[in-house]
Design goal:
Bound molecules: cytidine-5'-triphosphate, magnesium ion
Low-confidence stretches: none
Number of helices: 7
Strand order of the largest sheet: 1-2
Structural class: mainly alpha
Shape: elongated
Largest sheet: 2 strands, antiparallel
Strand content: under 5%
Mean pLDDT: 97
Radius of gyration: 17 Å
Length: 187
């Protein structure tokens, strides 16, 4: 398969992991996940991690995955754009979406432990926590799906492409979100 097809198809399959963080900005604003609790003098997670953001973001990612599945099915795209049979494909889709927000929560947990305030910049961590969470949870819940779609048959090069592209996408989306007034800071 052509390297460009591999790269774009792995990005396509990863999209349910890329949307939730942006969607969480829109759904956020409710009660914080840590319920205001602190640990060692700092908030456990902070006010930037809310239940509505977590749930709205996860459902958005799952919904996007289902839309991509429908598009691929209606257009008869087949491999490598195929998420797999329905309803089995819902497991990796859900894992990508939920995992990305759990990774983001893990990132905030670490930021608070090293004394960084909510919204403070944490290079590398901010750009990769969600991707590590998304791929990590999917590897756990859907090991064969992960290997077949994101590793085997050269797909690993697509995965590397997504890893390299992610900080750029993250930056782009956050600058856009900032300019649109959805985010307080452009990172
Ligand atoms: N958000 C949310 N719930 C989540 C994740 C994000 O409500 N589980 C919303 C919050 O309004 C948050 C915004 O999305 O402020 C941006 O997310 P992020 O940059 O991850 O949070 P920060 O506010 O920067 O906080 P932190 O320093 O903990 O990353
Ligand atoms: Mg932030």
């Amino acid at each position: 398969m052509h390297p460009v097809i591999i790269a774009i198809s792995v990005l396509w399959l990863t999209l349910p992991a890329l949307l939730p963080n942006s969607a969480a900005v829109i759904f956020g604003g409710g009660a914080p996940v840590d319920m205001g609790r602190s640990w060692g003098g700092s908030r456990l997670l902070g006010d930037g991690k809310t239940w509505t953001g977590l749930m709205g973001g996860t459902l958005s990612g799952l919904l996007l995955g289902m839309m991509l599945y429908l598009i691929a099915t209606l257009l008869g795209l087949g491999e490598p754009w195929d998420f797999g049979g329905f309803p089995d494909c819902l497991v990796p889709m859900f894992s990508l979406a939920l995992g990305s927000l759990l990774g983001d929560i893990g990132g905030s947990f670490l930021k608070r432990r090293i004394g960084l305030a909510r919204g403070a910049k944490a290079p590398v961590l901010d750009q990769y926590d969600f991707l590590i969470g998304a791929y990590g949870l999917t590897l756990l819940t859907s090991t064969s799906w992960f290997m077949d779609h994101l590793v085997n048959g050269g797909a690993i090069y697509g995965l590397l492409f997504v890893v390299i592209l992610t900080p750029l996408l993250h930056r782009l989306v956050n600058v856009l979100g900032y300019k649109m007034g959805a985010k307080d800071v452009p990172w």
